[in-house]
Amino acid sequence: MVSVIQKKNRKFKEIDYYKNEVSNYFLLPFRFQKINFQKEILVNEVGDFLIVPIGTAEKIILKKISKIDDEELYFDLISNFFISEDPIPILLNVLEARYRTKKSFLEHFTALHIFVISLRCEHTCHYCQVSRVTENKDQFDMSLYNIDEGIKIMMQSPNPYITMEFQGGEALLAFNNIEYAVKRAKEEAILHQKNITFVICTNLAPLSDDMLPFIKEHNIMISSSLDGPAFIHNQNRHRPQRNSYELTIQGLEKCREALGEDNISALLTTTNLSLDYPGEIVDEYVQQGFRNIFLRPISPYGFATYNEKKNKYQTEKFLNFYKTAFDRIIDYNKKGYYIREDYATVILKKILTPFPVGYVDLQSPAGMINNVIVFNYDGKIYASDEARMLAEMNDFTFQLGVLGQSSYNDIFYGEKAMDIAENWTNESLAGCSECAFQAYCGADPVLNYATQGNMYGYRPTNVFCQKNMEIIRYLFNLMEDESIEKIFRSWITGHSE
Ligand code: SF4
After folding, report:
1. Which of 305, 322, 310 lies closest to 268, judged by CA?
2. Which residues pair with 399 in a beta bridge?
3. Cα 423 to Cα 415: distance, rounded to the nearest angstrom
4. Is the CB–ligand 1 distance for residue 346 below 6 Å?
5. How far apart are CA 228 and CA 281, in angstroms?
6. In this predicted structure, what is the pLDDT of residue 190?
7. Which residues belong to any copy of the Radical SAM core domain (predicted)?
8. Stretch 265-287: mean pLDDT, rounded?
9. What CA–CA distance (Å, rounded) separates 453 from 395?
10. Which of 351, 438, 448, 456 to mutate to test the pocket of ligand 1 (most atoms within 8 A of CB)?
11. 407 by DSSP, 3-state: which?
């Protein structure tokens, strides 16, 4: 009996422990995460953050933050809605309004309508599933019937601002169809009071001078591809004459001259070869006068599906590539040449501004269906471009319907869409629901399915998670340096200081 009492007594802590007053604030929802050996980050429901010494989150939760001794932190926590002196904060409606604003990219529903206008291509890029250069035009171009049916669906979008994007194969090989589609869409837009932006995604090789007047007249944006200097670009993008790079550069110059700098952009496809040349790729973009570069990861579709080891290795390699290229980009900015990295800019907008950022690949609910829909050349309708790539591998899990057969409701609110919807908010996915970076990240059921076999995914080995977690942490770390934070802010506003 005596020994039991002694044992209980030993549980008492030192007297100082009991002297420390426990504050009587209330906790509001927030998440936290270590970002380096000294610091951790606290993030509230709308993405406001505080970077604090490690151990602060624990102190907050144990109510050890004192109004007197930790005055500055205490009031930062109150004003940023991490804690409250009332069970329900008096300014709760401010938090509600900010949450609604952050999610307001959902208000108008689908904006981007991708028309795969032709599957034909005169390139034979090794990473591409769809090259069929010699194939029959009638079989692999989108029919006028499917174009009309796609426009009918597009006009039913509740969104008054829509984008019609032409993709391939190589879209310019079906330029007649593009001309037809643009004219038809414009006629319908008047009837349905829509504002349309047109985009052609092209490798620029088939661009001819007689196309430019039409492109200019209809204010069509050109989205091209530049994989880096000639030795990378030509290796990635095979043509029998090995001159893809030369044609791209010629095309870029022609477009800039005819359409203006702002109407032409280029995308980078990162391949295994690219991973060894981060500096050279950034240098090439600067040499060609670009003010932005999008360091896109290797796509796991088609070559690394269901192989966790390989996916993880590829993502690690990509992250090393990303950081080395990013350092070079920062160096250029420090030397006075403004060039921003697009993926980081999306994340930084989410971190540093209260505005909604509806970027298709990094949002919750996910961009598929909510922001983008794909009409394939053969009339099949997919939830996203990646869903179409899966279909090229004969997996039709994300096919939502068929043009001319499926109604708007079948496509956007049908059973398939509902299944995907169960997995498209990171607020409700295990791992994401308690992640400090949730407000800056997104959900990608197609990628989860392609790499892990189901739409829900498993975060500890998930490539989407691995990439975003590290990039977001990396950006926060860099932001500790004031000169870099200044550069980041210039990327968000779109002009140098
Ligand atoms: S995917 Fe990863 S980084 Fe993104 S919210 Fe989920 S757990 Fe966080």
Report:
1. 322
2. 382
3. 13
4. no
5. 4
6. 97
7. 117-260
8. 93
9. 12
10. 438
11. coil
pLDDT over 50 at 77, yes or no: yes
pLDDT (mean) for 398-426: 96
Beta carbon of 465 within 6 Å of any ligand 1 atom: yes
**How do strand 26-27 and strand 83-84 relate by DSSP bridges?**
antiparallel
What are 187-196's pLDDT values in tens digits? 999 999 999 9
- Read off the pLDDT of residues 216-258 as tens digits, 9 standing for 90 and up: 999 999 999 999 999 999 988 877 777 889 999 999 999 999 9
Helix intervals (H) in 228-307? 230-236, 244-259, 278-287
Ligand 1 atom 7, closest CA: 432
Tell me the CA–centroid distance for residue 462 and ligand 1, in Å: 9
pLDDT, tens digit (0-9, with 9 covering 90-100), for 291-343: 999 998 776 665 445 566 666 778 899 999 999 999 999 999 999 999 999 99
* Residue 186 tokens, joined: 């414009």
What's residue 393's pLDDT?
Answer: 83
Give pLDDT, residue 239. Answer: 77
* Local structure of residue 461 (DSSP, 8 states): G
What are the residues facing 200 on neighbouring strands?
A: 166, 222
Distances (CA, A) of 25 to 28, 72, 85: 10, 15, 5
Q: Best substitution site from 34, 35, 362, 432 to test ligand 1's pocket, by max atoms within 8 Å of Cβ?
A: 432
Beta bridge partners of 208: none
Give whole-number Cα distances, 444 to 203, 375, 424, 466, in Å.
27, 20, 6, 13
Could you give all domains of the chain from N- to C-terminal order, each with its CATH number? 22-102 (no CATH), 109-418+466-479 (3.20.20.70)
Count of positions (residues) in the chain? 497
One-letter amino acid for residue 189 of the chain: A
For residue 9, report the phi and psi dihedrals to the nearest 5 degrees: -60, -35
Hey, is 450 helix, strand or coil?
A: helix
Phi, psi of 478 (to 5 degrees): -65, -35
Please state the separation of Cα 494 from the chain's center in Å. Answer: 18
Instruction: Give the pLDDT confidence score for residue 271 in this predicted structure.
Output: 83
Q: How far apart are CA 325 and CA 339, in angstroms?
A: 12
